[in-house]
């Protein structure tokens, strides 16, 4: 096992992690960056695993950010999954060439986000996936999820996926956005002129899609071997679905459906940082002091989506702020940085005002939880249906924790990463508690399944 | 169901772990109106983190009559309740070296005298029962009557049986204090109002002492950290419950338990003497510590070397309730109407049905078939006074 003593360990190599690592390294701090991907960049700045040059302006920006971080001396550890962290801040990661133990003086968690999937009839059919998964297929393999794709759900990320598919020459046959377009969205955009160009670009890309609807929701995926059709129905601004006016879109071979993102809080939760729940920020997120990235745990900082879903611009700003403040806390000479930090904090507040507003505008509709029927599988690892979960609640338990132990929902290989938010929503709907009261599956060591041989190697000689 | 304040009952059972669930069932079946109040989710604390072995092997000589009765009761409950993965799979306790023989023989003698049928097996005989156990053990004891249950479902079934007999279950409602009136118990206080009852049974595991103190009752229960690991689901590979021989110096005087759940996950833990040091409490549960992970994985792979490439999936920590002599505190304590059933010492599952029987007999004014003195909550006071 490799042992690495370092000043600062950055976990996650997306926009937030790269900016954090570079800022701290520039301040003279020894920085190691550990990332699960083949190459750094994360989901947003995803790089080709073979090292081929980026195809998009976004990918090129990422390549430049990686090069800059490398030039400042950040030590990269790609393809390494963090699976344990201990109260003394030791972090264990498993890489293709063996495990690594990091002993950092401080940690910046920039682990990013998961797709927020919600179960509905047919969601386990082949050909149905999240927009994020479709985007990865397109970015990594240059392939579309299908020849005739329906893109659905809610939020601006759908437009980004549409743009990628249009560039691939495979524009979706339909874009089904649940949020009805109205003056509130236009008014919000009007308040943030800095984002007009991006919005115009995304809207222009969407024009290649023959059928565009807003205020409609996919209620069912239909098919036997694979998805071949979707049922859609109108959904109003209060989130109510009008099934009487349902329609069917047939002749499709893929459905990308998702409801934005959820912060990837496994590591910050394992480190016992304080978390809060806010639907506009993707649900449970790590609470930080926005100006410094400090969490409630000394020596642990967080930046980017893990602190609340906001997108790449706030991620970069919060990453840089966390890197600078961690460097200062570690004793780097940061005199003269005050002006920059104040300016970054101001930019972050503005960028967050935009993204938080979008988060509220594109909140998943209230009736989303009604889509899953009794026989719809909610937990895919353990094949637990909504009826199984409802029966447990009827027997007197509640919350995510209660559903888990009485039904095994969230007890399988993914440990509730996929179904956790859905189980919380079902708990809230069935027992009248809030999603916040429903809680989340507390992550435990190991954060990802890891072979016993590796576990033994990483604990055998370690200090206890 | 979320019953409001102002509830009334004959008896309130505080804690919906396996002990509280069993007590609630026993009281409800005997015709009492019972409310079970749980601060978290039912079976979600100590019970849910248990490996839930139902057996008599290497437990406690004085408790053997009760343990035998409990094993039969669990089998009887399994035959009438919906499935809770009850499996009479037997239990092996391995010996690493010759020096552990004396203790193994002693336990076999005690249990045989009590009418049980444990035996000592050589490694070849062990492998006929547990083929994947190919590690270099010296021998193992074999107790064929041991069983395991799914701890979550077992608690659920007991609560279902209690509710079927008229009990009401209230989840996520912490009891904040005991209510007294005229020197006797009058119910409990909760954050959402009082629940009135002339009988209160505290089955709150490591939280019991704090609640009893609100009625001026001092209980010698302390929390002890217990940890466990689980692998991902794998095809059936372990048939029995595998433990370490209880002996001075056996597995370095700690304990081991290894079994495969019906889900396919292998559940295992090994604690060596002095192996557990990390701080924490039932209200602030820490992660497993590194030494525990190392000792548990090393022991698993010592016994089952073929498992080396199986993925570890999860770990968990619980705080079990421990008494000075490792026996439950079960029976009346302090003001009239107050009863205690707590002090699992890490083996609460098997004994829960017996503890419920003792409580139900006290409440019903019946003689108990068991030695109540073993569990008298005041037994340490008497010793101190003597």
TrEMBL record, chain A:
Stretches assigned to the SoxA A3 domain: 378-454
Residue ranges occupied by any FAD/NAD(P)-binding domain in the UniProt entry: 7-180
Protein's recorded name: NADPH-dependent 2,4-dienoyl-CoA reductase/sulfur reductase-like enzyme
GO MF terms, alphabetically ordered: oxidoreductase activity
A Pfam family of this chain: SO_alpha_A3
Lineage: Bacteria, Pseudomonadati, Pseudomonadota, Alphaproteobacteria, Hyphomicrobiales
Keywords of the record: Oxidoreductase
Domain of life: Bacteria
